[in-house]
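Running this now, will post back.
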Amino acid sequence: MADRAANCTSSGVPLEETGSTSFPCPGCDEVSIGRSPRCRNQGVLYTCAQCEYQGP
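Update: finished.
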């Protein structure tokens, strides 16, 4: 698995805010998905760069 994501996978903003998170891709477990609080709360879709898994 990759290291913790530095930026939000959806918006590209740095994951510095409280409430941001990073987790392994549910589709491939290889890429670390990063989510900012804003994208998480709004349910913005993200896409894994490796396996193209898409999630809310």
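The beta strands are 21-24, 32-35, 46-47, 54-55. More later if anyone needs it.
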